[in-house]
Every structure is written in C-alpha cells, then in structure tokens.
Write a structure and sequence with these properties.
heterodimer; A: 231 residues; alpha/beta; 7 helices; 7 strands; 33% helix; globular; B: alpha/beta; TIM Barrel; two-stranded antiparallel sheet; 10 helices
C-alpha cells in the first residue's frame, strides 16, 4: 500500500559541489528535503524511488554519478553508478540521513502508458507501507537561454503539470502527451504517470501540496508531496 | 605552508603583492606615487582591489641617483607607519636591501622584508629574525644593488637560483626566521638576461618542488618586453601569461602593478588546477 508520494527534480546542480562557489540550488534543495521529510514522517517500511532514464529496470548501484558531471573524487565506471535521476535521489536521501530501506528503479523516458501503469501498480501492490519518490523535471525549453532554447508550448505544458500536482489530479497526469513531452525535453512525464498509476488502488491524495515550481535556469522544477488517505 | 603576520596560507592559496613606490623615478609608474598622499591612495586602491600584501619601496631598482639609507628611511618609514595605522591587518612588505632600513620599517609596523638584492647586506636576515618578520630571499647572481646585468651566464640558471635562494632561506631560519616565512624568489631579470628569465618561468616547478613558498616578480619587466617587443606600458598581457605559467607551477606570491587582472588570472589558473571551484557553475547542469 502507498502511504505517500513525492516529486523531486533531478538537475545535477542539486549536488552541491557542482555549482562551485555559489550554491545556486539552495532553495530548491531545501524544498526537496522537506518533501523527503514528509515521506519519512509516514513511517514507510520501504521507500521506492522511480526516476527517468534511457531504459526501465531495477537499480541496485549505490554510487552517485557526480564525477561524470565534473565533480572531483574517484573516477568510477559508469556501470557502477546510478543514473542521474536516481543518483540525485540517493544524494538527497544521504544528505537527509535517511536510514530506512530504499529500492530504486528507472522508467524509460519514452515509456508507454501501459509500461507506466505496470510499474506504478507493481510499486503499490504490496502489503508493506510504501512511500514513493518520483524524480522528474518539467520542460527544459523555457527560455532563449534554456538548455533546449525556447518553445512557447512549454509554459502551458508545465502549468498543467503544476496544476495536477497541486490538485492531486491523477487523471490529468495520465493525460500528458508523451510526444509533446519529448518535444519539450520534459524529463518527468513517465515518472509522473507512474506515480499517478501507483495511487490507482489508494485513491486521490489527501492534501496534495506543491512546495516548489520554478525555472531559475530555464528548466522547470517541481517539488510536490501527495499524502495518501487513511494511513 | 606560508605564514605572514600570524596568518597561515596553505600551498594552494595565492597572494597578490601590490607594488607601492615611494620613488620619483621607478620604471613603470614614473613617480606617480612619489607624493605621500598619492601613495596612500594607491594603497587604498589596491586593498579595495583585493591585494593581500603591499610592497613599499623607496629606491628604484635601476641605476640612478644615489639614495642613502637616511633618504630611503625618510621616504618610507613614516609611510609604513601611516599604512599600518589605517590598515591594521594588511601585510606590509618593504623592498629594501639595507638592514638599517629594515629595522626602522619593522619598528614602524612592516611584516615582511623583501630583500630584492639577494642578501647583499647579510644583517637584513638578522633584523627579520629579531622582529619575527618574513623574508624574501632572491637570486641575483651576486650582483651589486642597482646594477644592470652585463653578460651574466649560468651553468644552469634554475639550479643556481634554487641553490642560492634555499641557502639564504636556510641561513635566515638558522638565525631565527620562521621557516614558513622564508620565501624564495628566482628574481626575474635581476642578474639575468631574457633567456634566463624565460627558463626560470618554464621550469618554476623545480623551484616550488623545494617546498618553500615561492614569490615571483614578473610585472611589466624587460623579459616580457623583449619577448613581445613591446615597451613599458604595453606588457600587461605578456605579464599575465607569465603569471599563469608560474601559477600553474605553484608559485604563491605575485608582486605586481595590476592587482585586479592578476587576481583574475590566479583564480582562473587555480580553478583549472582544481584547487578552487568556479565561482558559479550552471552551464549544462540545470
């Protein structure tokens, strides 16, 4: 059973050492920590993290891929490091001192509706108390200086995601268009839909809350928490 | 490790030493800070630009009018006291080869004696020890102060510069100077031709490998001018290129005319070396 879900973004910048002298993501990181606290407060037996990647699958690596993004330290073969989305989650959990059991899985950026549904149900369909953390970003095309330059459609798309997260609108998330999302360099569409499917048996969240929705570098970041009812 | 005025700096920390001339005739500023008020304004300016040290000098390096010890003191001792009064924490260096001048400026608040003429007056190191001051030990090839090099030659200029400056530093330490305050300087252009100064720059890593803090004084010098065929006033780019190479090799103190540009180069090189993070990195990471 799902007791709570949360959404966090996964820019490399959340790894503190990568932005150099200035901590450019301090506020965002603080909100992510709040989201993790909200999950931990539900006393889950297991925390499942789902993040986007090139392919879907369970991941058991422990190492954060900070070296690959320019950090110092030991150079580790890519096959021993987590993909970025899960690596950022790992870093957030480690920084928060999270001690509980954690399982991690990726969902392909281009996962079909059926694939997202299967993964979401598999996460939820267990007797234990499960907290689900999904790692996903909005569009990376929100300005002329954005990584993917400007695509005006990004604003409407991201606003719809924000609305769904703030209202707990699962059906709305499931309606997100995979083709448009890919066009807009949205790194969270599949993960968001896994989350929506994971609540199929539990029902709508109680008191959904968006803690952060902004695009300081041209990429839309969401932090949201969906507590689930009656647990 | 480097220690100045009680503060410790690890080997990856670079310091900018700004030149402040109390002379009417130095080659670069040509008397711009001969007036006491102008000199104090220069100190305020370089401190605002981030200079870590000021190096006050009362006698130009090149040949010229004879300046005795009393005139040298008249030019700089009260000025050192005035700088000390206004900047209690600033590291004050004085460029002098005379022990009597060194004593007077240490009493007025100097922290560092820049013995740019390579131990010409052996008592200067004793003064540094007596006052707990730092000492810059330079290599001049044994020339007399304020003389120009004439056909200098070395079997291995780098080896000789290292051996000579390290020997001076060891003597100073034996006299009581803090080992972390005994700085060595290959002294570009002093007793050297352009080829010598270029080789010292190219092989500065051999000097930093001694483990002693290394100072370099490159600013607008003739070896830059001859290399690029440029007069004084047009040597900043070449100076900064030499600065970058010395920084890559691990020099720690940079005696300069231009503080802001030097600090940018030092920060850039330190960041390339991986000992300083970028001020703000966002590109490609969002």
């Amino acid at each position: 059973m799902i007791v709570a879900t949360a959404v966090c973004p996964h820019p490399p910048l959340l790894m503190r050492e990568l932005s150099g002298g200035q901590d450019v993501a301090a506020e965002l990181r603080t909100e992510c920590e709040s989201a993790l606290e909200a999950l931990a407060a539900r006393s889950p037996d297991v925390l499942v993290v789902v993040g986007g990647h090139d392919s879907s699958g369970r991941r058991t690596e422990r190492l954060v891929p900070v070296r690959g993004y320019g950090g110092t330290g030991e150079r580790v073969p890519p096959e021993r490091t987590l993909p970025l989305s899960l690596g950022v989650a790992r870093r957030l959990l480690d920084s928060a001192g999270y001690r509980g059991r954690v399982e991690m899985a990726t969902v392909a950026w281009d996962a079909s509706a059926a694939e997202a549904e299967a993964l979401g149900r598999r996460v939820a369909d267990r007797a234990e108390r499960v907290a689900l953390l999904v790692m996903g970003d909005g569009s990376a095309r929100r300005g002329t200086r954005a990584p993917g330059h400007l695509d005006e459609r990004a604003f409407g798309f991201d606003e719809e995601v924000r609305r769904c997260l703030s209202e707990g609108d699962r059906a709305g998330l499931l309606r997100l268009d995979p083709v448009l999302a890919a066009d807009l360099m949205v790194a969270g569409r599949a993960a968001f839909q896994v989350m929506a499917h994971a609540l199929a048996a539990t029902g709508d969240p109680v008191g959904p809350e968006v803690l952060y929705a902004d695009d300081p570098f041209g990429v839309m970041y969401f932090v949201a928490v969906w507590p689930c009812g009656s647990f | 490790m480097l220690r100045l005025r009680g503060r410790e700096y690890d080997a990856d920390t670079t310091l900018v030493m700004a030149i402040v001339n109390r002379t009417p005739d130095s080659f670069y500023d040509k008397g711009a800070t001969w007036d006491g008020g102008a000199a104090l304004e220069r100190v305020r300016g370089v401190v605002a630009e981030g200079a870590d040290i000021v190096d006050i000098g009362g006698v130009k390096a090149a040949p010229g009018e004879e300046i005795g010890a009393e005139e040298e003191k008249r030019r700089i001792v009260d000025f050192v006291a005035a700088v000390r009064a206004e900047f209690p924490h600033l590291v004050i260096s004085v460029d002098t080869w005379r022990a009597s001048v060194g004593r007077a400026v240490c009493e007025a608040g100097a922290d560092l004696l820049n013995d740019a003429w390579g131990g010409y007056d052996p008592e200067l190191a004793e003064v540094a020890a007596e006052f707990g001051a730092a000492l810059v030990c330079t290599h001049t090839g044994g020339v007399t102060p304020r003389t120009r090099p004439h056909r200098p030659h070395y079997g291995d200029v780098v080896r000789e510069a290292i051996d000579d400056t390290v020997a001076q530093a060891e003597r100073a330490v034996s006299l009581g100077v803090d080992p972390a305050s005994a700085i060595i300087d290959p002294a570009h252009d002093f007793g050297k031709n352009t080829w010598h100064s270029l080789e010292l720059t190219r092989r500065l890593d051999e000097m930093t490998a001694t483990g002693r803090p290394v100072l370099v004084s490159l600013s607008n010098k003739d070896f830059v001018g001859e290399t690029l065929d440029l007069p004084v006033g047009e040597r900043l780019t070449g100076t900064l290129a030499a600065t970058a190479v010395c920084a890559w090799h691990g020099a720690q103190v940079y005696r300069v005319h231009e503080v802001t540009e030097t600090r940018q180069v030092l920060d850039m090189v330190a960041t390339i070396r991986g000992v300083r993070p970028p001020a703000r990195a966002v590109r490609g990471l969002a």
